[in-house]
Every structure is written in C-alpha cells, then in structure tokens.
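User: Predict the full complex structure for these chains.
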Amino acid sequence: MDDSDDLINSFIEEAREHLPVIEASLLSLENKPDEQTVLNELFRSVHTIKGGAGFFGLHNISTLSHSMESLLSLARSNKLQLTHQHIDVLLSSQDRLVQMIDDPQNSNNINVEQECQKLNQLIERPNEHFNAFAQIAESHRSEAEFFEPSNEFSEPEFIEEQDDFPETTPINQQENFTDFKNQANLNPFVFSENEFSEEEKLAQHDLLSSFIEEARECVPRIETALLALEANPGNMQQLNELFRNVHTIKGGASFLGLEKISRLTHIMEDILALAKAAQVVMEGKYIDTLLEGYDCLIQLIEQHQGDNGIDIEQLCHRLKQLKNLDAHESEHNAAIEETVAVATQSTENLTSIPSPPATTSLAKPIIEEEPAIISHSETEETIRVHVKRLNKLIDLAGELVLVRNQVFRLCEPLIVQTPGLKVILHNFNRITTEMQEEIMGTRMQPIGVIFNKFPRLIRQLEKDLGKQIELVTEGADVELDKTIIESLSDPVTHIIRNMADHGIETPQERIKQGKPPCGTILQKAFHESGQVVIQFSDDGKGIDPDFIAHKALESGIITADIMEKMSAKEKMNLIFTPGFSTAKTVSSVSGRGIGMDVVKTNIEQIGGSIDINSQLGKWSSITMTLPLTMAIISALIVSVQNCRFAFPQSNLEEMVLLEADDYAKQVGKVRGQRMLSLRGSFLPLISLAESLNMITATEENPQLSIENPLYILIIKAENNRVAVIVDQILGSEEIVVKPMPEYFRQVKNFSGTSILGDGAIAMIIDVQGYIHKNQLTYTELQKDNNSSSQQRKVEQEPQSLLIFDNNTEEHFALALSWIRRIDSLDVRRIQFIAGNEYIEYRGEQMRLLRLENCLPVQKPNNYEAIANIIIPKRTKIPVALLINRVVDTKSAVIKLENTAMKNSGILGSMLLDGKITLMLDLHSILEAGEPDSVEKLEINAEKAKNKHILLVEDTPFFMKVIKECIEAGGYKVTTANNGREGLDTLHQQDFDLVLSDIEMPIMDGREMVKNIRANPRWDKLPVIALTTLNDEQTIADGKKAGFNEWLVKLDKELVLKTLARYSE
Amino acid sequence: MRQFISFYLGSERYAIDILLAKEIGRLHEVSPVPEAPEYLIGIMNLRGQILTVMDPQFFLEQKTNVPLAQRALIILKTKAELTRLNKLTRKTFNTEIAIKDPLAILVDKMGETLNVEEKEILPPLPNVANEKEEFISGMIQQQNQFIIILAIEQLINCVCNLKNESFKLKD
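Assistant: Here is the predicted structure of the two-chain assembly.
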C-alpha cells in the first residue's frame, strides 16, 4: 500500500476520533464555560486535526481548524468568555469539519469562508469584559512578544504536538504559545509584563494551586507508566502517557517559576523523547533513574513553596549522562532517527543556553518529519481491518465450532481408553469457544457510538422547541454487533426526537405540574438474559392511551367496538400501527407516531422487539430488546419428515404437548381452519409439513386422527400467534446464520440456513413471512373482539349494510343490495284502506309494512312525525317498509351469531359499533307482510331435481343462506370453502353449475374460474359469480376471467331465476 | 488446446470446460428445501459451506434411471473463485458465469477428461441432439459419438432468474 495513503488514512481515522470529542467538549463548555480541562481537551483535538490537515495539504480543514483554534486560544488565555454565540459558531464549524473529514479528497472544494469569517469576527471582537486584551490578541502574532514570557519554549514540544509544518510557521508559534498557557493556565502577557492587578495576583495564586492539583494527578500516572514500561519496554501507549504527564508538569512548573521541578522534568522528558523516537529501550537503568526522578518530583511538588532544600543536582546529572550517552550513540543511525537526534541535540543546546526563539526556525524544518513517525507508532495500537476479512473470520470461527462438535462426537467413546484425551478435548473446547467469542467481539461496537450523537441533537431541540432538557446516558459502553448499531441509528434518533417534542413539556407547563423546569431524557443500555436492552425514558407528560385510541379510531385503524375492549397497553401500542399519526401534533421536529411503525419494523428486522410504557402526566418509556449479534441466534431445532428446521427463539412463545385425549377438546375448526384452544384464546393450528407442502394436506390428515401426542410450537410475529405442529423437537441450539443461497429467492418461508453441530443443515423459518404466506393473520384483537378488521377483509367480502332503528331498543340491519331507495315520510300521509296502510308515492299506491307486524320485534310506542320508508328492489307491487330512523350505512363483514333464532325474516344478530344488531331478511319480511308483492318463482322441480350445483363460499353465513335458498329451489348442492376446495370437488364429481364467491382465502373465485376454464372438461360448465363486489371494472374483469354471470349476493330471486335459466 | 470434463446424463454425453469445475463429489445428506422448484434437489454441507445441488435433467429434457445416491456432483466455481483463477494464471478465462453461492450440478456418471483443439469444436447441430438448443454451446466429435458442450451459463441463468411456472413444483 502506498505509504502516504496509509498516513493520510491514519490521520483521517484519528481526526474521526477527535471530532466527537470536539462536539462533546463544546456542549459541555456551553454549560460550564470555565472548565479548563474541557477547554484544553477541546483545544488539543482541534489542534491535532489542524496539524495533520496542514501536513497532508488539506488546506481547508487546516484553515478552518486554525480559526477555531485561534478563538479557543483566546478563551484559554481568559481573554474571552465562551458564550452561546461562540459555541454556536464553533459547532457549525465542527459540522463543516465533519463533512470535510468524511471526504478528505474533496475537502479543498468545500467552502469554509463563511465559518472562518464568523470565527474571525469573534476573534476580533472578544467579549466586552476582555476588551482590554483585544489589542494583545491582535498582536500575538509578533514572535518576539510571543516567546518573551519564557525561554522554556525552546524545548522540543513539537514532538508531542506533531503538527508543525512550514507554511504556517507563525501559527505554530501561536500554538506553542497557547499550549504553553495550557500547561500553566496563565496569561503570559500579563505575567511577563509584571502588571498584575490585585485580582490578577490572586488569579496567579489560583493558578499555582491548580497546577499543584494537576501535578498531583499526573505524578501517580508517571509511576504507573514507568512500572508498566519496565514490564513491557515496547509499550508505546504507556510511553506516550508518561511523556505527556511529565511534559504537563514541566510546562506548568517552568511558567510558575518552580525552577527545580521544571529542570528535573525537562531532563526526564528529554530521555523520554529519545525513547519515543526508539533510540533507547526503556530498560533497567532508565527506569530506575526515572523512578528516582519521580520520587524526587513528589517531594518537590509537595513542598513547592520557597526553597525547600531538596537537592536535585546529582539526580539531574545522572539523568543527563543517560541522555548524552544515547544521543551520541545514535548519531550514525538511520535518517529518521538522525533527525530526532538533531532535534534533541538542538534542544539540548537551547536548554543550556537560553536563546531567542528565532533559533527554533532552524530546528523546525527538521522536526517536520516528526508527526508521521509518531502518529504512525501511535496508530499501531489499532489496525484497521476490512469488514470482509472480519466476516470471513466469523465464518471460519463458526465452522471451527462445527468441527469441534464433530471431533467431540467421534472422540467421546475413546476418552475412556485414551489417557489425556479428555484434557486435550477440554482445552480444545475452551479455546474454540473463546476464539469464537473474541472474533465475534471484533464486530462489536459500544452503543455510545449512537448515544453520543444525542447531546447535540437535544441541544438543537431545546432551542427549536423552547424547552429545557437534560440528557442522561447510562451504559454507553454496552456493546452490540456493528450491523445492529448501524441499523439502530435512525430509529433511535426518531425516538429521541419524539420524546423531546411530545414527551417533555415546556418549562412553564412543567412548573405548573410541580416538576422541575428542566426535563430529563434518560438513554440507557444494559444486558439482560443474553440480550441487550436499550431504554429511553422521559419525565414528561406521558402518553394518553385514550387519545391515541381516538386518533386511531378517527383514521380508521380500529373500530369503536374494538376500542372499547382494548386495554390501555394495547391502545398505546397503536402508535406502532402503520399510518397512525396524531395529526394535531405534527411539528417540524416530529409528528408523534409518524414513522413509529417504521421504527418498529426496523427493530424487528434486526431480530429485536420494542415496547412502550407510560404513566399519564409522569413519564413514558420505550424499551428495545435486541440480540447481541445477528450472526448467531438462539433457535429451537425441530424436525419434520426427517428435515430439520430452526425457529428463532425470539419468535417462540411456548411449546405445547397436546395429548391425544385432549385433541377433540382443544382443537376445532373455524371456516375450514383448524384452531387450537389455548387458555381461552384460539390460535390457528397448522402442520409444518403440510404448510410447507412436504406432505399433501388432506381433509382429515392421518397425523390428526391421532394416537400419539402432538408437539406444538406457539410462534408469534407482530400480533399474530400461530400454533404449529412438528414431528419432533430436537432442542435449543446457538446457530450460525448463513443466508439462503441465491437460487432459492422465490422460496419465501426461510430467512436463512444453518449448519448444526452434527453437520446437518437446518433451514431457519422466517416466522413473519411464514405466517403471512399461510394467511394466518388473525390478530388477538380480531379474535377477541369477534369483529372485522382490515386483515380479515382479504379473506371475506364486506357487505354494505343499512342500519336503522324503530324507536325501540332494537337495532336492525339490511343489506343495501336489496334496497332500491330510502325516503322520508310525513306520517300524516298514511291512509288506511281495508285495514292496511298505504301511502301515495310517486303517483302510485304503495303498501306500507311495519316491522312489528311482520317480525317478532318490539312495537314502538309512537313514530316520529317524519319517519322513513325503505323501498325494496324488485317487488311486483309497490311496497315500503316503515322505519323510524336511519342510523348509518356501513360496510362490514357479516359474521352472524344466534343464527338459530332465525325465523320469519331475522337472519341472525351481530355486533355493529358495539350494539347488537339484527340482520333482517327483506324477502321474508315482504313475504310475511304482503305475499303478493313477492315474485313467486316458478320452480320447475322436475328440471331442478337432477341438477347438481357446486357452491363455493367461505363465509358460513352466506353459505347457509344461499344453500337453503337453492335447495328450496329443488337443486342438489355440494359446498366448498374456497377455490382450491372447489376445484378439488370438481375433479371428484360432476356438476351442472358452479356458484362462487369472489374473495376467498387460499384461492379466490377469479383464480378458480381461470383454472376451470383452462380445463377442456369444464369448457361448457356455467360458472356464476355471487358477490357483493359490483363495480363495473370488477364485473368486466370477472367476465373476462370466465364467469358466465355476475350476481349480487342475497338476492334470492335473481339467483333462482338465473339458475333456472341455466337449467334449461 | 482446451480441456473438458465429460459426463453422462440420461441418454446423452455432455462436457464442460474443466476450468469451470471446482471439484467432483457425491451426494450425501442433502436437505431438500420445501417449496423449492423441483430442479433444485436441496442443499448440503460442503465443509461448512452451504452447497446448492441442481439437477439439470429438467432443463435438458433427459430422464435418468440412476438412483440419487449413485449420481455424481460437479461442483462449479463461483465468481470469486473464477476471478481468483484469472488472477493466478494471469489469463482471462471468459465466461458469463457469475454465481455467488456454491452450486453443483447432478449428473449420472463422470466420463473421461477430453483434450480438444479449439478448431475441433463444432457449432451446435440441431439435428444431432434433440435438446433445447439454448443449452448447447458446441459439439465435440469423438469417434462416432457427439459430445454436447453444455452452455452452463444458460443453465445458471435459468436457475437464478427463473420465474417460469412450468418449472415450479406442482403444489
């Protein structure tokens, strides 16, 4: 690989590490502008980026970071107080830096003028309070003045700084200047000019004590690092740490005039510089002498006041000897080492003879080489590896586990007769496991990668929303698979936005509620039972389940009767329904609910789950449970027809063993679908083998005329729970997921494959896909509420109903397809003729029927002055039904209960909008009330007798009604529940005519008729559609598909007439 | 000079360029994939890799009487393996084959390896073989017998992109 590429990459990598630090520091400075340590850290990060960028000719990065740095240096020298304004500009500059560092090649094309200008403005106009220093700030480019404060500047600080480059010499000097101040926390100008005010003297005292404090922190680290180096002389990290700490002490001490400390640390630093340049190896004598220096340093720091009588001369001398020895030795070394040697030599001179800073310009060009060397050695701590290679390693580790398992099985019988084998196997096992864990670990990243993005987001949201929010982070070091981390970013951002926008109240509101004005959002990650839990909670106003439910009702996601029966939790979970939104609260920041379904989908895609909780007015929380990694999942292995299948544990709810004796009790059939009764709820029961077409499904599967107990898994995805029969349960296993080979793209049931411990292959069931594919989308909600919903519509046609009442407690419904028109009627217009009621309607006498006279229903006490009449279609004489009022028209799937009470015109009852509604049979009512009005069908029993009709219908209600109707017509009827059954029946028997519904599960009417028409045997077979779908397009399409006639359901006459016509 | 490996399938003898083959194997412990098209026999564990086994007889309109367990497998090189081969030999072996996941074709029996001069390869003669022409890229004459050079890339195209109903498993 190209060397310079390598270097630039390591710079970019380093810069990427610094950018979050910059952001974090800026945010924390905003709250505590006086935090010197944070400021210093920030400064160093900006500085590092600037240095590297300059070195690699990334001018724009370097210019921008230079401006940022200049501003920060003013702040560090207390000439400027960082205000929100400054932070804003710095943050936007940081954004620009991020942009440029993401694409270094093009960074020179990105315009940074604006940011630079803003920064420079701020630099030129520091805060009012610091005006006095503005001039000095302006002039701080003057080198002489710059270096006046101390000669200590001639020390080889560059080695640490790693950023000097020729083009920007003045800037570098400024760097040194500020860095110097950094060490001393002191304003050099003030100091050097001896113009202390009282206040400044006090400040200096403060600085001294803060230096001592800092030094006390540094000293133990020196010891630790020295000891670590003794154990491992090559440890660059420790060496750098050591160097930094010594350097820090030196800088501060020299500035505060603590001469002994400064001299001692200076010499120590020189030696360390040699070690860093790999000229000396940190061995015995070095460590020993340096430790002596360390001991001495402690004393000096503890007794820094006045002349403490501690003699450092001897020690200094010995240290110098060590240093000179090596400096001379190394003079003939390789080029790079030479430069360092020269550098140290020159610095040595500079130390002994205080010289003007101009000499540094001599040393500079030599030192330019430094950054490369040092950054190189530092990045050796991490190696960048291509993800491809990691993935390969993971694969191999997975295979190794398999091989181990195979070896184990083979060796097990040999253990007894082979001494030592057991130990070897044990070791083999341990190492394999450990290795696999380590390799898997390489893909792990801390969740902090995501969490750390949010302080900035929250800050922005605070501003946009006018709220006060504190973000608390816990468990940022919890690690997750890289892929999972990546796919979490968006959903989690969404959640945080929602919480800030809708969860947290405005400060005023919070005070009213007796809460602190500043709201809190907690982001928290922790391990729980082998999974990672990520939790977000706020102490805001919480989520009102009823509000959510009403919104869902408005947008038609649920119906009123469903809503009534929902628990608060279920209502809250409506947030995750696609299309859900509380339109009232849409803002630029977020509309609660918009995209929450996407959040849920994303989380589920990576094998996780999401849950919402809240207490109204107090708090709300969103909890995500995620697998540690996607590459290995915990699964239940089952077998069917000698094939293995794996069900991901996350989709598994429980396992049920159904004893043969209980079968009849617990399994029933609903609309042709077997259902398992499990603790009060009904789950679709399917056999895995049948649903995968591994065995042919028969009406009564031999497997189900059982003698043996059934193994049943209860699997779940989204809101669907399904009971699956398997042959055998083999056990739980951690499996390595391999993608399904590309050749099986059209096979939808599996999400992948895996090689099991014994070498056999298992296919991993994609539970969600499997449930969808088998059309088992019955949600708990739907079942429990015994009512319709969108998903059911796929299988059953909704029927348009007119809902009305009669001024009594009863509600009635009539199929709209029976009704010609509805009109209002002034009851005074009713006339009595021969005991019957008539009205004049459009120039005709119209017979008026009252429900209570035709049906066993309550009699109303009175009618309103203006009542309504329902005029049915196709009556021989004009007839109308008098009713009190029309409540609604509604499209609903008819699912009747109490069909047993069916007599004289009542088909049954059903729940509509939470009310029991009687479904009426208009035909029977008319027949009872005015037999003359109904067309008497001339049933030619002779003709009908030998006709065999196949009725294909999925709704039991319609099945019953239609079957009775055509049987009454004298036909022989055979029924089938769907198109597939219909076709099968057709194969087995001969029919004269087929009557079929359109929308049916498994195979719909269109598909069936296509199949019928494709077979020459049924070329002439009349097929009649019987449906409620009656728009022209559908009818045209239906006729094209091969239907002879298109009839509307529940019109008995028409059906019988048509049948009669075809019987000719 | 090119090298071909030949094999028998049904009533015909076929050959493919030896460079396309990775290894010859046998069918063992193959797991059928439910609801997969019938020409996909299943998947098997090839030293930790998932190998898909395909039976070309459905495409070549051949009928075989050889029991599954006795048939041989020709494991094809994947795209990555072909690229590596090209790099290694510094030659460009031109093929449209671009399979990502390991694939093997199931044949009745392996034949001998053939050394054939480029000029000896004949264009497909429709009257010689009654197979679908699209799967024939050429012919080799050996004594009195014609060996069909299988256009394996066509076969793979069929496997990868096939949505054709007629090849789907009948219910």
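Confidence is low (pLDDT under 50) at residues 128-196, 327-380, 583-594, 777-796 of chain A.
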